[in-house]
Amino acid sequence: MILCGGDALIDFVPVEQANGLIAFVPRPGGAVLNAATALARLEQEVSFIGALSTDLFGDMLHDHMVCESIGTANVSRSDDDSTLAFVSLANGEARYAFYDSASAGRLWTGLKDPLPAAEALHFGSLPLFANPPASAYVELAEQASSRVVVSLDPNCRPSLVPDKEAYRRRIDRVSTASHVIRLSDEDLAFLHPSACEEEVVDGLLDGLTRLVIVSRGAEGASAWWAGGRVDVAAHPIEVQDSIGAGDTFHAGVLAALSRAGQLEVEALDRLDRASVEYVLAFGTAAAALSCMETGCDPPSLNAVLKFLGE
């Protein structure tokens, strides 16, 4: 099982109507829920960790989890509001306006029960921006790192971070407890504005981290591990939009590792070039297929395998 801890929210996606006006359609979203959805469609056993509101949007998110076979045993419900995000698109690239003050996710303080058995814990995004959820997720990752593979996707959104220096220190701390880390090129620039890429990667690989990935959208992705570096190109596709592309990419990486029996610390120590190339190719294919749809709509396992020619 892969545990996914973090944000679950409603994306209001723009859809042009017949009269030319734009309507905003609510869809389940949030970086970590997107990743959980992608993992479930890639035929991984998944359970979500976090909080949902009892309002109609919280019900929509809970129903989505049930429909996608995402476990909800570790989901708490509260009367606090749901997080909402309105999406605008420019040349397929997504921009967001978040409404997240005093939401259920923002006020989550941790699991009531011990962390369930799993092969990995994946987390990141909005709950790491500020306390109380940030501290709860950091402590959860540190506790889990001796038992399972910890996967981190910061998914930074600088405009939403109240204390940028405190946030950077927090990401540094959780990075030391993470075995797999994906950074977008924008994340890298924000978190380490004065450091070069290789310097950041070398620092991460000096600790627990076994695999570091930097994704660059249409420019492809790179991965570093103890054996060196691998680069893969993005697939030439007609992009509908990029909503959830990075989340789907990261889910594809985790699914590929799990399918190969490599989603465990000892196996990550034995990664070779061919394994890392395939992991990146799988993640890139999953992201490409999602970008060919409107909104975050991750592909099935069969669709990814067909896309890869398997």
Defining traits:
310 residues, alpha/beta, UDP-N-acetylmuramoyl-L-alanine:D-glutamate ligase, 13 strands
Radius of gyration, CA atoms, in whole angstroms: 18 Å
Counting DSSP E segments of at least 2 residues, the number of strands comes to: 13
CATH superfamily name of the domain at 31-45 and 108-307? Ribokinase
Largest sheet: 9 strands, mixed
How does the overall form come out from the CA principal axes? globular
Task: Give the C-level CATH assignment of the domain at 31-45 and 108-307.
Answer: Alpha Beta
Provide the spatial order of strands within the biggest beta sheet.
Answer: 5-4-1-8-9-10-11-12-13
The proportion of residues in beta strands is 25-35%
Structural class: alpha/beta
Distance between the terminal alpha carbons, to the nearest Å? Answer: 25 Å
CATH architecture of the domain at 31-45 and 108-307: 3-Layer(aba) Sandwich
Q: What does this protein structure show overall?
A:
The chain is an alpha/beta fold and 310 residues long. It has a domain of 215 residues: UDP-N-acetylmuramoyl-L-alanine:D-glutamate ligase. It is 35% helix and 26% strand. It is built from ten helices and 13 strands. The strands form two sheets. It has a nine-stranded mixed beta sheet, sandwiched between helices. A four-stranded mixed beta sheet has the order 3-2-6-7. A hairpin with a 2-residue loop joins strand 6 and strand 7. Helix 1 crosses helix 7. It starts with a strand and ends with a helix. 49% of the residues are buried.
Short description:
With 310 residues, the protein is α/β, with parallel strands linked by helices. The protein has helices spanning 31-41, 56-67, 133-144, 164-175, 185-191, 197-205, 245-259, 265-268, 273-291, 301-307, and strands at residues 2-5, 9-16, 22-29, 46-53, 70-78, 84-90, 93-99, 120-124, 149-153, 180-184, 211-215, 221-225, 228-232.
